[in-house]
Amino acid sequence: MRWKLTSLLILLLLTTYFLLPISTTSAANPSELEQQIESVRKERDALLEEQKKLQAELEAVNKESRSLGSAVKSLDTTRKKLAADINITQSKITSSNLTIQSLENTIGEKERQIITHRKAIADTLSALSEYDSKSLLLSLLAYVRLADVWRDNSQLTGLNNRLGEEINALRETRKILNQEKEQKEKVKKEQLSLKGQLSGQKSVVEENQKAKEKLLAETKNKETEYQKMLSENLARQKEFEEDLFRLESELRITLDPSLFPAPRHGILAWPLNSVTVTQTFGDTAFARSGAYDGRGHNGVDFRASMGTAIKAVLSGTIEGMGNTDEMNAKLKKEGKSICGSYGRWILIKHNNGLTSVYAHLSASIVQTGQDVKTGEIIGYSGGTPGVNGSGYSTGPHLHLGLFVSQGVQIRQFTNSKHCQHTFVPVADLKAYLDPLAYLPSL
Asked: What are the UniProt keywords, alphabetically (predicted)?
Protein backbone atom coordinates (compact mmCIF):
# COMPACT_ATOMS: atom_id res chain seq x y z
CA MET A 1 0.00 0.00 0.00
CA ARG A 2 2.90 2.33 0.81
CA TRP A 3 4.32 2.00 -2.72
CA LYS A 4 0.91 2.60 -4.30
CA LEU A 5 0.65 5.94 -2.49
CA THR A 6 4.25 6.84 -3.37
CA SER A 7 3.72 5.91 -7.02
CA LEU A 8 0.56 8.00 -7.18
CA LEU A 9 2.34 11.06 -5.75
CA ILE A 10 5.27 10.66 -8.16
CA LEU A 11 2.93 10.31 -11.13
CA LEU A 12 1.08 13.46 -10.03
CA LEU A 13 4.39 15.33 -9.75
CA LEU A 14 5.48 14.17 -13.18
CA THR A 15 2.18 15.15 -14.75
CA THR A 16 2.16 18.69 -13.32
CA TYR A 17 5.84 19.54 -13.72
CA PHE A 18 8.08 17.17 -15.62
CA LEU A 19 5.68 15.86 -18.23
CA LEU A 20 5.24 19.26 -19.84
CA PRO A 21 4.73 19.16 -23.63
CA ILE A 22 7.94 19.00 -25.60
CA SER A 23 8.55 19.50 -29.28
CA THR A 24 10.81 17.40 -31.42
CA THR A 25 13.28 19.44 -33.47
CA SER A 26 15.21 18.28 -36.49
CA ALA A 27 18.90 18.49 -35.71
CA ALA A 28 21.50 20.01 -37.99
CA ASN A 29 24.91 18.37 -37.95
CA PRO A 30 26.62 19.74 -34.78
CA SER A 31 30.18 19.42 -36.13
CA GLU A 32 29.25 21.18 -39.37
CA LEU A 33 27.61 23.98 -37.37
CA GLU A 34 30.73 24.43 -35.25
CA GLN A 35 32.86 24.65 -38.40
CA GLN A 36 30.50 27.23 -39.93
CA ILE A 37 30.47 29.30 -36.72
CA GLU A 38 34.28 29.26 -36.60
CA SER A 39 34.49 30.20 -40.30
CA VAL A 40 32.13 33.17 -39.79
CA ARG A 41 34.12 34.26 -36.72
CA LYS A 42 37.40 34.30 -38.70
CA GLU A 43 35.72 36.19 -41.53
CA ARG A 44 34.40 38.77 -39.07
CA ASP A 45 37.85 39.18 -37.48
CA ALA A 46 39.24 40.03 -40.93
CA LEU A 47 36.41 42.51 -41.50
CA LEU A 48 37.09 44.15 -38.14
CA GLU A 49 40.73 44.64 -39.11
CA GLU A 50 39.64 46.24 -42.38
CA GLN A 51 37.18 48.44 -40.48
CA LYS A 52 39.93 49.56 -38.09
CA LYS A 53 42.20 50.59 -40.99
CA LEU A 54 39.41 52.49 -42.73
CA GLN A 55 38.49 54.26 -39.48
CA ALA A 56 42.09 55.41 -39.02
CA GLU A 57 42.19 56.60 -42.64
CA LEU A 58 38.90 58.45 -42.15
CA GLU A 59 40.08 60.18 -38.98
CA ALA A 60 43.21 61.33 -40.82
CA VAL A 61 41.10 62.73 -43.67
CA ASN A 62 38.76 64.54 -41.27
CA LYS A 63 41.73 66.27 -39.62
CA GLU A 64 42.67 67.87 -42.94
CA SER A 65 41.71 71.49 -43.54
CA ARG A 66 38.12 71.97 -44.63
CA SER A 67 38.19 71.96 -48.40
CA LEU A 68 36.05 70.54 -51.17
CA GLY A 69 38.69 67.94 -51.94
CA SER A 70 38.91 66.74 -48.34
CA ALA A 71 35.09 66.69 -48.08
CA VAL A 72 34.76 64.47 -51.17
CA LYS A 73 37.61 62.27 -49.95
CA SER A 74 35.90 61.99 -46.55
CA LEU A 75 32.62 60.94 -48.17
CA ASP A 76 34.40 58.33 -50.34
CA THR A 77 36.33 56.90 -47.39
CA THR A 78 33.19 56.96 -45.26
CA ARG A 79 31.35 54.94 -47.90
CA LYS A 80 34.09 52.28 -47.82
CA LYS A 81 33.95 52.13 -44.03
CA LEU A 82 30.14 51.93 -44.09
CA ALA A 83 30.40 48.99 -46.49
CA ALA A 84 32.72 47.29 -44.00
CA ASP A 85 30.27 48.08 -41.17
CA ILE A 86 27.44 46.51 -43.16
CA ASN A 87 29.50 43.37 -43.84
CA ILE A 88 30.27 43.06 -40.12
CA THR A 89 26.60 43.41 -39.19
CA GLN A 90 25.61 40.83 -41.81
CA SER A 91 28.30 38.53 -40.42
CA LYS A 92 26.82 38.94 -36.92
CA ILE A 93 23.37 38.08 -38.27
CA THR A 94 24.77 34.95 -39.97
CA SER A 95 26.52 34.01 -36.74
CA SER A 96 23.31 34.45 -34.75
CA ASN A 97 21.47 32.19 -37.22
CA LEU A 98 24.08 29.48 -36.69
CA THR A 99 23.93 29.97 -32.91
CA ILE A 100 20.15 29.54 -33.00
CA GLN A 101 20.58 26.31 -34.98
CA SER A 102 23.15 25.08 -32.45
CA LEU A 103 20.81 25.89 -29.56
CA GLU A 104 17.99 24.07 -31.36
CA ASN A 105 20.29 21.04 -31.58
CA THR A 106 20.90 21.16 -27.83
CA ILE A 107 17.20 21.68 -27.15
CA GLY A 108 16.33 18.67 -29.32
CA GLU A 109 18.92 16.55 -27.51
CA LYS A 110 17.59 17.53 -24.08
CA GLU A 111 14.02 16.82 -25.17
CA ARG A 112 15.06 13.32 -26.29
CA GLN A 113 16.80 12.80 -22.94
CA ILE A 114 13.60 13.83 -21.16
CA ILE A 115 11.67 11.18 -23.11
CA THR A 116 14.27 8.58 -22.03
CA HIS A 117 14.05 9.67 -18.38
CA ARG A 118 10.26 9.55 -18.50
CA LYS A 119 10.34 5.97 -19.79
CA ALA A 120 12.88 4.93 -17.15
CA ILE A 121 10.71 6.42 -14.39
CA ALA A 122 7.60 4.73 -15.77
CA ASP A 123 9.38 1.34 -15.92
CA THR A 124 10.68 1.76 -12.36
CA LEU A 125 7.23 2.70 -11.06
CA SER A 126 5.78 -0.36 -12.80
CA ALA A 127 8.35 -2.63 -11.14
CA LEU A 128 7.70 -1.07 -7.73
CA SER A 129 3.98 -1.50 -8.26
CA GLU A 130 4.48 -5.23 -8.84
CA TYR A 131 6.26 -5.57 -5.52
CA ASP A 132 3.54 -3.60 -3.81
CA SER A 133 0.75 -5.79 -5.23
CA LYS A 134 2.02 -8.91 -3.43
CA SER A 135 0.93 -9.53 0.14
CA LEU A 136 3.67 -10.08 2.68
CA LEU A 137 2.50 -13.66 3.49
CA LEU A 138 2.37 -14.72 -0.17
CA SER A 139 5.78 -13.21 -0.76
CA LEU A 140 7.30 -15.15 2.17
CA LEU A 141 5.69 -18.43 1.05
CA ALA A 142 7.10 -17.89 -2.45
CA TYR A 143 10.67 -17.69 -1.20
CA VAL A 144 12.55 -20.99 -1.03
CA ARG A 145 15.44 -19.62 0.98
CA LEU A 146 15.97 -16.70 3.31
CA ALA A 147 18.64 -15.42 0.91
CA ASP A 148 15.88 -14.90 -1.66
CA VAL A 149 14.10 -12.57 0.75
CA TRP A 150 17.20 -10.42 1.17
CA ARG A 151 17.85 -10.45 -2.58
CA ASP A 152 14.37 -9.15 -3.38
CA ASN A 153 14.63 -6.57 -0.62
CA SER A 154 17.93 -5.42 -2.12
CA GLN A 155 16.29 -5.16 -5.57
CA LEU A 156 13.48 -3.11 -4.07
CA THR A 157 15.98 -0.72 -2.51
CA GLY A 158 17.82 -0.53 -5.84
CA LEU A 159 14.61 0.33 -7.67
CA ASN A 160 13.89 3.04 -5.11
CA ASN A 161 17.37 4.53 -5.57
CA ARG A 162 17.07 4.31 -9.34
CA LEU A 163 13.74 6.14 -9.20
CA GLY A 164 15.33 8.98 -7.20
CA GLU A 165 18.25 9.21 -9.62
CA GLU A 166 15.99 9.34 -12.67
CA ILE A 167 13.79 12.03 -11.12
CA ASN A 168 16.88 14.12 -10.29
CA ALA A 169 18.25 13.60 -13.81
CA LEU A 170 14.90 14.61 -15.30
CA ARG A 171 14.79 17.72 -13.14
CA GLU A 172 18.32 18.75 -14.18
CA THR A 173 17.64 18.07 -17.87
CA ARG A 174 14.45 20.13 -17.74
CA LYS A 175 16.43 22.98 -16.09
CA ILE A 176 19.07 22.94 -18.84
CA LEU A 177 16.34 22.78 -21.49
CA ASN A 178 14.68 25.91 -20.11
CA GLN A 179 18.03 27.72 -19.99
CA GLU A 180 18.74 26.84 -23.62
CA LYS A 181 15.29 28.05 -24.67
CA GLU A 182 15.85 31.35 -22.82
CA GLN A 183 19.22 31.74 -24.53
CA LYS A 184 17.60 31.08 -27.91
CA GLU A 185 15.04 33.85 -27.28
CA LYS A 186 17.84 36.20 -26.22
CA VAL A 187 19.79 35.54 -29.43
CA LYS A 188 16.63 36.05 -31.51
CA LYS A 189 16.09 39.46 -29.86
CA GLU A 190 19.72 40.39 -30.53
CA GLN A 191 19.27 39.32 -34.14
CA LEU A 192 16.20 41.55 -34.46
CA SER A 193 18.28 44.46 -33.16
CA LEU A 194 21.05 43.65 -35.67
CA LYS A 195 18.56 43.70 -38.53
CA GLY A 196 17.43 47.15 -37.40
CA GLN A 197 21.07 48.27 -37.34
CA LEU A 198 21.61 46.86 -40.83
CA SER A 199 18.65 48.82 -42.16
CA GLY A 200 20.01 52.00 -40.56
CA GLN A 201 23.50 51.44 -41.97
CA LYS A 202 22.12 50.93 -45.48
CA SER A 203 20.16 54.18 -45.25
CA VAL A 204 23.37 56.00 -44.22
CA VAL A 205 25.12 54.63 -47.33
CA GLU A 206 22.29 55.98 -49.48
CA GLU A 207 22.58 59.40 -47.80
CA ASN A 208 26.34 59.33 -48.33
CA GLN A 209 25.98 58.85 -52.08
CA LYS A 210 23.28 61.54 -52.32
CA ALA A 211 25.46 63.91 -50.28
CA LYS A 212 28.40 63.56 -52.64
CA GLU A 213 26.22 64.19 -55.69
CA LYS A 214 24.55 67.15 -53.97
CA LEU A 215 27.88 68.59 -52.80
CA LEU A 216 29.42 68.49 -56.27
CA ALA A 217 26.26 69.90 -57.85
CA GLU A 218 25.88 72.80 -55.40
CA THR A 219 29.55 73.76 -55.42
CA LYS A 220 29.93 73.18 -59.18
CA ASN A 221 33.07 71.34 -58.12
CA LYS A 222 34.66 74.67 -57.14
CA GLU A 223 36.51 75.33 -53.89
CA THR A 224 35.20 78.90 -53.67
CA GLU A 225 31.61 77.66 -53.78
CA TYR A 226 32.37 75.11 -51.05
CA GLN A 227 33.84 77.75 -48.75
CA LYS A 228 30.81 79.91 -49.46
CA MET A 229 28.55 77.02 -48.41
CA LEU A 230 30.45 76.62 -45.11
CA SER A 231 30.14 80.35 -44.44
CA GLU A 232 26.40 80.18 -45.10
CA ASN A 233 26.10 77.28 -42.65
CA LEU A 234 27.82 79.34 -39.94
CA ALA A 235 25.57 82.31 -40.68
CA ARG A 236 22.46 80.11 -40.40
CA GLN A 237 23.79 78.69 -37.17
CA LYS A 238 23.98 82.20 -35.69
CA GLU A 239 20.46 82.96 -36.93
CA PHE A 240 19.13 79.78 -35.35
CA GLU A 241 20.88 80.49 -32.05
CA GLU A 242 19.41 84.00 -32.09
CA ASP A 243 15.87 82.65 -32.55
CA LEU A 244 16.45 79.85 -30.04
CA PHE A 245 17.65 82.29 -27.38
CA ARG A 246 14.62 84.52 -27.96
CA LEU A 247 12.20 81.62 -27.60
CA GLU A 248 13.99 80.13 -24.58
CA SER A 249 14.02 83.51 -22.84
CA GLU A 250 10.23 83.49 -22.98
CA LEU A 251 10.06 80.26 -20.96
CA ARG A 252 9.61 80.79 -17.24
CA ILE A 253 9.60 77.33 -15.72
CA THR A 254 10.20 76.74 -12.01
CA LEU A 255 12.55 73.78 -11.58
CA ASP A 256 12.29 71.51 -8.54
CA PRO A 257 15.86 70.33 -7.68
CA SER A 258 14.47 67.27 -5.88
CA LEU A 259 13.14 65.89 -9.19
CA PHE A 260 16.51 65.44 -10.92
CA PRO A 261 19.93 64.17 -9.77
CA ALA A 262 22.80 66.41 -8.76
CA PRO A 263 25.88 66.18 -11.01
CA ARG A 264 27.81 62.94 -10.54
CA HIS A 265 30.05 61.06 -12.95
CA GLY A 266 28.64 57.75 -14.15
CA ILE A 267 24.92 58.55 -14.03
CA LEU A 268 25.02 58.49 -17.84
CA ALA A 269 26.93 56.18 -20.20
CA TRP A 270 28.95 57.31 -23.22
CA PRO A 271 26.94 57.69 -26.44
CA LEU A 272 29.84 56.33 -28.53
CA ASN A 273 32.19 53.37 -28.34
CA SER A 274 35.21 55.61 -28.93
CA VAL A 275 35.10 58.94 -27.09
CA THR A 276 36.87 62.14 -28.18
CA VAL A 277 35.37 65.44 -27.02
CA THR A 278 35.82 68.20 -29.62
CA GLN A 279 33.87 70.94 -27.82
CA THR A 280 32.77 71.09 -24.19
CA PHE A 281 29.73 72.71 -22.61
CA GLY A 282 29.53 76.42 -21.89
CA ASP A 283 32.09 79.14 -22.59
CA THR A 284 34.31 77.56 -25.25
CA ALA A 285 36.67 79.20 -27.73
CA PHE A 286 34.18 78.55 -30.53
CA ALA A 287 31.37 80.05 -28.43
CA ARG A 288 33.46 83.18 -27.78
CA SER A 289 33.85 83.62 -31.55
CA GLY A 290 30.14 84.47 -31.64
CA ALA A 291 28.95 81.12 -32.99
CA TYR A 292 26.10 80.87 -30.48
CA ASP A 293 24.85 84.45 -30.49
CA GLY A 294 27.13 85.37 -27.60
CA ARG A 295 26.03 82.46 -25.40
CA GLY A 296 27.92 79.35 -24.39
CA HIS A 297 27.74 75.99 -26.15
CA ASN A 298 24.55 74.24 -25.00
CA GLY A 299 25.90 70.69 -25.14
CA VAL A 300 28.98 68.58 -25.80
CA ASP A 301 30.37 67.71 -29.25
CA PHE A 302 32.06 64.38 -29.93
CA ARG A 303 34.21 63.34 -32.86
CA ALA A 304 32.12 60.88 -34.88
CA SER A 305 32.57 60.11 -38.56
CA MET A 306 29.43 59.74 -40.63
CA GLY A 307 27.65 56.44 -39.89
CA THR A 308 29.09 55.96 -36.39
CA ALA A 309 26.60 54.15 -34.13
CA ILE A 310 25.00 56.46 -31.54
CA LYS A 311 23.77 54.92 -28.27
CA ALA A 312 21.31 56.01 -25.60
CA VAL A 313 23.19 57.42 -22.59
CA LEU A 314 20.49 56.08 -20.24
CA SER A 315 17.32 54.03 -20.43
CA GLY A 316 14.21 56.01 -21.24
CA THR A 317 11.46 56.74 -23.75
CA ILE A 318 11.80 58.45 -27.13
CA GLU A 319 10.00 61.72 -26.41
CA GLY A 320 10.31 63.09 -29.93
CA MET A 321 12.24 63.06 -33.21
CA GLY A 322 12.65 65.38 -36.14
CA ASN A 323 14.71 66.49 -39.11
CA THR A 324 14.82 70.20 -39.85
CA ASP A 325 16.66 69.54 -43.12
CA GLU A 326 13.56 67.97 -44.66
CA MET A 327 11.60 71.20 -44.19
CA ASN A 328 14.58 73.20 -45.46
CA ALA A 329 14.63 71.21 -48.70
CA LYS A 330 10.98 72.09 -49.30
CA LEU A 331 11.52 75.78 -48.47
CA LYS A 332 14.56 75.95 -50.74
CA LYS A 333 12.52 74.67 -53.69
CA GLU A 334 9.96 77.39 -52.99
CA GLY A 335 12.70 80.03 -52.96
CA LYS A 336 12.19 80.81 -49.28
CA SER A 337 14.87 81.36 -46.62
CA ILE A 338 15.97 78.25 -44.76
CA CYS A 339 16.94 77.68 -41.14
CA GLY A 340 20.22 76.35 -39.81
CA SER A 341 19.37 73.96 -36.99
CA TYR A 342 19.95 70.53 -35.46
CA GLY A 343 19.18 68.59 -38.63
CA ARG A 344 18.02 65.12 -37.61
CA TRP A 345 17.57 64.87 -33.82
CA ILE A 346 16.28 62.42 -31.19
CA LEU A 347 15.03 63.42 -27.71
CA ILE A 348 14.98 60.80 -24.92
CA LYS A 349 13.21 61.34 -21.59
CA HIS A 350 14.82 59.35 -18.77
CA ASN A 351 13.19 58.12 -15.57
CA ASN A 352 15.44 60.15 -13.25
CA GLY A 353 14.30 63.62 -14.30
CA LEU A 354 16.87 64.10 -17.07
CA THR A 355 16.30 64.35 -20.83
CA SER A 356 18.98 63.98 -23.53
CA VAL A 357 19.08 65.15 -27.16
CA TYR A 358 21.25 63.77 -29.99
CA ALA A 359 21.69 66.02 -33.04
CA HIS A 360 23.19 66.09 -36.57
CA LEU A 361 22.30 62.43 -37.24
CA SER A 362 22.41 60.82 -40.67
CA ALA A 363 19.86 58.14 -39.70
CA SER A 364 17.65 57.04 -36.80
CA ILE A 365 16.41 53.51 -36.06
CA VAL A 366 13.90 54.23 -33.28
CA GLN A 367 10.34 55.59 -33.12
CA THR A 368 8.61 58.17 -30.92
CA GLY A 369 7.18 56.46 -27.83
CA GLN A 370 9.64 53.57 -28.01
CA ASP A 371 11.43 52.49 -24.83
CA VAL A 372 15.20 52.16 -25.13
CA LYS A 373 17.87 50.82 -22.80
CA THR A 374 21.23 52.26 -21.80
CA GLY A 375 23.72 51.53 -24.58
CA GLU A 376 21.07 50.67 -27.18
CA ILE A 377 21.82 51.99 -30.67
CA ILE A 378 19.31 54.69 -31.61
CA GLY A 379 20.84 56.10 -34.80
CA TYR A 380 23.97 57.02 -36.74
CA SER A 381 26.03 60.18 -36.71
CA GLY A 382 26.16 62.69 -39.53
CA GLY A 383 27.29 66.29 -39.57
CA THR A 384 28.99 66.22 -42.97
CA PRO A 385 27.91 69.38 -44.85
CA GLY A 386 25.32 68.51 -47.46
CA VAL A 387 24.25 65.25 -45.82
CA ASN A 388 20.54 65.10 -44.97
CA GLY A 389 20.23 65.44 -41.19
CA SER A 390 23.45 67.40 -40.65
CA GLY A 391 21.72 70.74 -40.08
CA TYR A 392 24.07 73.71 -39.78
CA SER A 393 27.06 71.48 -38.99
CA THR A 394 30.31 72.23 -40.81
CA GLY A 395 31.87 68.84 -40.11
CA PRO A 396 30.99 65.30 -38.95
CA HIS A 397 30.29 65.05 -35.22
CA LEU A 398 27.65 64.23 -32.60
CA HIS A 399 26.04 66.98 -30.53
CA LEU A 400 24.77 65.72 -27.15
CA GLY A 401 22.58 67.98 -25.04
CA LEU A 402 21.22 67.38 -21.53
CA PHE A 403 18.23 69.03 -19.85
CA VAL A 404 16.19 68.95 -16.69
CA SER A 405 13.05 67.19 -17.96
CA GLN A 406 10.75 69.74 -16.30
CA GLY A 407 12.24 72.53 -18.37
CA VAL A 408 12.35 71.15 -21.92
CA GLN A 409 9.61 71.13 -24.56
CA ILE A 410 9.37 70.38 -28.27
CA ARG A 411 8.27 73.68 -29.79
CA GLN A 412 7.75 75.30 -33.17
CA PHE A 413 9.45 78.64 -33.83
CA THR A 414 6.12 80.23 -34.76
CA ASN A 415 7.23 83.86 -34.40
CA SER A 416 10.79 83.21 -35.47
CA LYS A 417 12.66 85.59 -37.71
CA HIS A 418 14.44 82.79 -39.57
CA CYS A 419 13.05 79.40 -38.47
CA GLN A 420 9.24 79.70 -38.51
CA HIS A 421 8.74 76.10 -39.68
CA THR A 422 11.24 74.43 -37.36
CA PHE A 423 10.34 71.97 -34.57
CA VAL A 424 13.14 71.31 -32.06
CA PRO A 425 13.62 70.75 -28.31
CA VAL A 426 13.55 74.11 -26.53
CA ALA A 427 14.47 74.58 -22.86
CA ASP A 428 14.35 77.19 -20.15
CA LEU A 429 17.89 78.55 -19.88
CA LYS A 430 18.07 77.21 -16.30
CA ALA A 431 17.25 73.69 -17.54
CA TYR A 432 20.50 73.22 -19.50
CA LEU A 433 23.00 70.88 -17.85
CA ASP A 434 26.60 69.99 -18.63
CA PRO A 435 26.56 66.38 -19.96
CA LEU A 436 30.19 65.85 -18.92
CA ALA A 437 29.18 66.34 -15.28
CA TYR A 438 26.94 63.25 -15.56
CA LEU A 439 28.93 61.09 -18.01
CA PRO A 440 31.81 58.84 -16.84
CA SER A 441 35.07 60.58 -16.00
CA LEU A 442 37.33 61.20 -18.97
From this structure: Coiled coil
Domain that holds residue 351: 236-437
Query: Does residue 185 belong to any structural domain of this protein?
Result: yes
Q: Report how far residue 330's alpha carbon sits from residue 299's, in angstroms, rounded to the nearest whole number.
A: 28
Task: Identify whether 164 is part of a domain.
Answer: yes
Q: Is residue 208 part of a domain?
A: no
SS3 string of 335-382?
A: CCCCCCCCCEEEEEEECCCEEEEEECEEEECCCCCCEECCCCEEEEEE
Overall number of domains in the chain:
2
Residue 15: pLDDT band with limits 50, 70, 90 = very low
- Residues 6 or more apart whose Cβ sits within 8 Å of residue 87: 47
Full-model pTM: 0.71
The pLDDT confidence band at residue 400, using thresholds 50, 70 and 90, is: very high
Each residue's pLDDT tens digit, 150-176: 455 566 676 677 777 878 888 888 888
Task: Kindly state whether residues 329 and 430 are assigned to the same domain.
Answer: yes
CATH number of the structural domain spanning residue 123: 1.20.58
Give pLDDT tens digits for 66-114.
788 888 888 888 888 889 999 999 999 999 998 888 888 888 888 888 8
One-letter amino acid of 216:
L
SS3 of the chain: the string is: CHHHHHHHHHHHHHHHHHCCCCCCCCCCCHHHHHHHHHHHHHHHHHHHHHHHHHHHHHHHHHCCCCCHHHHHHHHHHHHHHHHHHHHHHHHHHHHHHHHHHHHHHHHHHHHHHHHHHHHHHHHHHHHHHHHHHCCHHHHHHHCCCHHHHHHHHHHHHHHHHHHHHHHHHHHHHHHHHHHHHHHHHHHHHHHHHHHHHHHHHHHHHHHHHHHHHHHHHHHCCCHHHHHHHHHHHHHHHHHHHHHHHHHHHHCCCCCCHHHCCCCCCCCCCCCCCCCCEEECCECCHHHHHHHCCCCCECCEEEECCCCCEEECCCCEEEEEEEEHHHHHHHHHHCCCCCCCCCCEEEEEEECCCEEEEEECEEEECCCCCCEECCCCEEEEEECCCCCCCCCCCCCCEEEEEEEEHHHEEEEECCCCCCCCCCEEEEECHHHEECHHHCCCCC
Q: For residues 309 and 383, state if they share a domain.
A: yes
What's the rounded Cα separation, in Å, for the pair 289 and 372?
A: 37
Distance of CA 102 to the CA centre of its chain: 24
- Provide mean pLDDT across the span 243-265: 83
